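ok trying again, last paste got cut off:
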Amino acid sequence: MMSAAEPALQIAALSAGYGRFDVIHDISLRVAKGEAVALLGPNGAGKTTVLRSIMGLIKNRRGSIVVGKTDVSGLPAYRIASGHAAIAPEGRRLFTDLSVEDNLVLGALRLRRDKRRVQALLDSVYELFPVLRTYRKRRSSFLSGGEQQMVAIGRMLMSDPELLLLDEPSIALSPVAVDLVAKALLELRRKGASLLLVEQRVDIAVAVCDRLYIMRHGEIVEETTATMAREDGFNMIEKYLG
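nice, full thing came through this time. structure:
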């Protein structure tokens, strides 16, 4: 089930946590270039900890994390965020007093001297989410939840990273907003983006992703493909999530 394409992300035997305690244990997973992979599991399984480990936001005790051709295991978070990986975090975490465009441009901080590139990235975000162009001068606090999620995804894209990480992008959104976010992720796939998606909605994960890892109690307990999950009627997934 593992893709033979060059990896965008390779995690091997990773253990990490907070304080003295490990939350994830001996995690190994892979995302090929241009592939979308979902990380599923019940609350508390350790999914967000995996994303935070990739971004250098928590200390990795053992194992390795390679993004593209760079081992980022020992790099500080600001170095990892400088083109290696970027995250759209759960809860979006926008600067709500700033405009939509100001929030987006903050994502391109490392590229600020290259104004043409920043503008090109901004245009690509507005092409993906046309409503944000309309609201570009509006304060982010006045946006709907779905529109704020679009800004969070757009800000992630503005750093032009090798790897995109999304933590629960559908949470607390209306059905219409969820559909728009899913369509945007499919469009990013079409353009060749590499994605690691943490998601509670199995239907979205299966619609967007090629492969699925299932976590429980800080460990990966199953790996399958979206096709196999559909053919199985999601029974194997529900066994762990239910």
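cool. Residues 189 and 197 are 12 Å apart (CA to CA). The longest helix spans residues 175-190.
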